[in-house]
Each structure stands twice: as C-alpha cells, then as structure tokens.
Amino acid sequence: MASRDERKTPAQMYREFAKQQQAEKRQQAAAAKKAADAEAKRQRDEQKRLEAEQRRAERAEANREAKERAENARAVAAVLRGIDSREAQSERTAKAQAAAYERKRKADEIQALRDEADRKTDEVTELVEYIDHILAGRDRDLADLRTSTDVDPQADDGQLFADAVCSVLNGLNYLQGRDVVTGTYEPEARRLVLQVDLPRKTNIPVAREYKYVASKKLIEPIARKDAEVQVLYRKLVAGIALSALDYTMQITSPELVVEVVLNGHSRGTDPATGQKINPCLVTVQAEREQFGTLVLDSPELDAVQCLHHLKALITENPYDLIPVTPIIDLEFLKKYKLAGEVAALAALDHRTDLMKISPYEFEKLIQQLAEAMGMKSWRTQNSQDDGIDAIAYREEPFNTGVCVIQAKRYSKTVPVEAVRALYGSMAQKKAATGIVVTTSKFGKASYDYAREMGRITLYDGTHLKALLLEHMGLDVLIGRS
Fold first, then answer.
1. Do 288 and 145 lie in a common domain?
2. Among the four residues 89, 386, 401, 429, which has the most C-beta atoms within 10 Å?
3. Domain that holds residue 371
4. Are 368 and 408 contained in the same domain?
C-alpha cells in the first residue's frame, strides 16, 4: 500500500517543491550571507591585520626614529659635552693663565718698586759720595787759561779784568751756568772779590735711603737726620768755595792777584716772609801765598776745617739759610763804583784828596760819616798819629752801645798791632763794638784777628771811599802822602 506521501497531489507536490525551492533559496541566501559575512569578516580581519601591521610598522618606524633621535641626541650631547669640556678646560686654562699673569704682574710691580727704591738709594749714595769727594772732582791744570784773563787790570777800574776771570770760572766744573760767578777787581790791593751762587739746599738729599713697604705697596723714604743734612750742605758749600778759590788762583797771574775774597750765596725763600732771599753762607779771604800751601788733593783734608784754617766765616746752619756777614760785600763795591763813575764825571779832577786835607778836617769828615751812619754822642780822644780815636754811641735794634773808632790816615798797610790795640781800647771803655777805618788797606792778619774777636769792623780805603759816597754823597780821592 502506498504511503501517504505517495498519494500527494501535484499541487501538494508543487507546493512542497516550491517550499523546498524556497528552503534551498533560503539556505543559499543564508550560505551566501554567511559567506558574505565571513568574507566581510575576513576583510575586516585583514583590514585589522593590515592596520595592525601598519601600526606596528609605524611604531617600529617611530621607535626607529626615536632611537635614531636618541642616538643623535646622545651623539650631540656627547659632542656638546666634549665642547663644554674643552671650553671648560679652556676657561680653566685661561683663568689659570690670567691668575699666573696677575701673580707675575704683581710680582713684577713689587720688584719694579724695589728696584726703584734701590735706584733712588743708589742716587742718594752717589750724591753723598760726590759731596764727600767734591774737591777730588774739580778741574785741574788750568794755568793755560790765564791767557783768557789777560786783560788790562787798570782798564775800566779793573772790571774788565774781573769780568774776564768770571767768564772763565763760569765754564769750570761745579760753576757752570750764566753769571754763577760775578766779581770785581781792586787794582790798588790786587784783590779779586767774587760772589758765587751756591747750589740750592734742595740739592741735598733729605732721605738717607728708600725702602719698599709691602703693607702699603709703595716706596717710602727713610729720613736723614737734620744734623746730617746740615753737615752735607756745609761740605758742599765748603767744597765749592775751595774749588772756586783754587780755580781763581790757577787762572790768574800772581802779579795781578795776590788775594781773593770769595762770598758764597744761596738763593731761597724766607719762610717768615715768603720773600726771595740770597744770603751769604760762606765768606773767605785767601792770600795766594797761604793758599798755595794747602794740599787740596789730600784724602784726609776736610773742606770745612780747611776753610776754618783760612779764617773763613761759614754758617753753622746753611740748610736754613742763616747768613754770615761778607768780609767784603761785592754788591756794595759795585754800587760804589757805579756811583763813583757818575760823581767823577760831575767833579772831574776837583775831588778832595784825603791824604792832603788837615788832620782836623779828616777828623771832622770821619765824625760826619759816623753821624751819617747813625752814630751819636761823638767824643774825640787824644791822638798821637794822623788818624783820630773817638767814642760814639750806636742806637740800632739789637746793636746798641758804645763804639770805639780808630782812624788811620795811612798810605801803607795798617799793621795788625793797631787792630789789637783797638780791642784793648774796647775792653778799657767797655765798648760793644769797634771800628778801624783807614785810607790804605789791612793785611790778612788784621782781618783774621777781627773775625776772631767778632766785634771789630775794618774799613779800608776802598770801603772808606764807598761809605763817604753812599752816606754823604762825597766822591773823594786817596792819593799818596
């Protein structure tokens, strides 16, 4: 018997077939969908894989680049570290070099100051040695220069001769300079009177030495004692004075010059007034014969003691420019000569000759001169010679008292005994000062004695004429008796 299925109608069968077809279509569609989904999934997965690989590749590239950058950075850092190290080393080297240079500079600066201190000390030492041996450095063998002073000593009242001598002296050692030495000549006495401008006291080193003081980083002078400065300046003054005397004796003829009076002056400023001054610091009267006995080249000779031997007056305090009174004042003589020339032109040959007037007239003339010089209370003493002895009273600041005056109208040299006699009269009369005035001249012994006693003033014929001209306007002659 046929099954129930076998009894299906075509319609049923068609429907079943249609269903089967639909089922198959559905299955195919599902399979296609499944395949499409699978493909889509595969594509998605592939896309994801590709994207993942791309990301991995990008990460790898990024890592590579990062690594490369890191390596580059490390390389750059290493280079920079090397540069920094070199720069640091260079900087350290530069600092070390700068420090070394600064140390050397400071050391050189200190050494330069020490060298400068030593140099200044050496200069001071050399200057002191120069002063100590000043006579040894004077010019020698000057007799040939006498031809340069071969000028008529009577011409122009001896001034041409004096100028010629001074011209030669001004070119010699220690005296170089314009008008350092000036002078005049007295033909009657065959005497040169010279004035020498001495070096200023600033030429004496007030420092004994110089030292570098490390704490102050400077050079300081070590002061010389005031007494040492005084001694040095006196040595300088004495050395130049003796050298100038020696020069004068060498360049002048013994027949023309038998005596030289030298006054040494130094220019400065008076601290009390601020005025310029030119005081006389040394004055000496040297006879050629006595001067010739000196051994100036002896290493044992002391210039200051030598001047004292010559009876010179030399200030005890030259550095402070304390003056002494010149034996013969050059400016006074020049003033007299200039005024005398003018008066001579007016008086021509009508001048009074002191050797021809009467003793009474001579006495009155000396009295009038004394009064013109500021003396009072004139009282004449008994006299046994052609001169007069008198007592006068002087009224001057710091120089008040009795003055004994003795006048000698001589044609020959006044003997030293007359000067000594005056000193005895001064003691007898208790006089403060004494004056001997003569128409002739005095010898060296008289000047030495007067300086030794200290209160006696000597006026020779030249000075008498000058005093009469200065104080009374009288131009006189002193002829032969």
1. yes
2. 386
3. 348-472
4. yes
Residues 194 and 276 placed together within one structural domain of the fold: yes
pLDDT tier, 54 (very low <50, low <70, confident <90, very high otherwise): confident
Q: What is the CATH number of the domain that holds 467?
A: 3.40.1350.10
pTM over 0.90? The answer is: no
245 and 370 part of one domain = no
For residues 299-313, give the mean pLDDT. 91
Across the chain, mean pLDDT equals: 82
- Could you read off the pLDDT of 359-378 as tens digits, one per residue? 777 777 888 888 888 887 56
One-letter-per-residue 3-state SS of the chain: CCCCHHHCCHHHHHHHHHHHHHHHHHHHHHHHHHHHHHHHHHHHHHHHHHHHHHHHHHHHHHHHHHHHHHHHHHHHHHHHHHHHHHHHHHHHHHHHHHHHHHHHHHHHHHHHHHHHHHHHHHHHHHHHHHHHCCHHHCCCCCHHHHHHHCCCCCHHHHHHHHHHHHHHHCCCCCCCCCCCEEEEEECCCCEEEEEEEECCHHHCCCEEEEEEECCCCEEEEEECCHHHHHHHHHHHHHHHHHHHHHHHHHHCCCCCCCEEEEEEEECEECCCCCCEECCEEEEEEEEHHHHCCCCCCCCCCCHHHHHHHCCCEECCCHHHCCCCCCCCCHHHHHHHHHHHHHHHHHHCCCCCECCCCCHHHHHHHHHHHHHHCCEEEEEECCCCCCCCEEEEEECCCCCCEEEEEEEECCCCCECHHHHHHHHHHHHHHCCCEEEEEECCCECHHHHHHHHHHCCEEEECHHHHHHHHHHHHCCCCECCCC
Are both 302 and 371 inside the same structural domain?
no
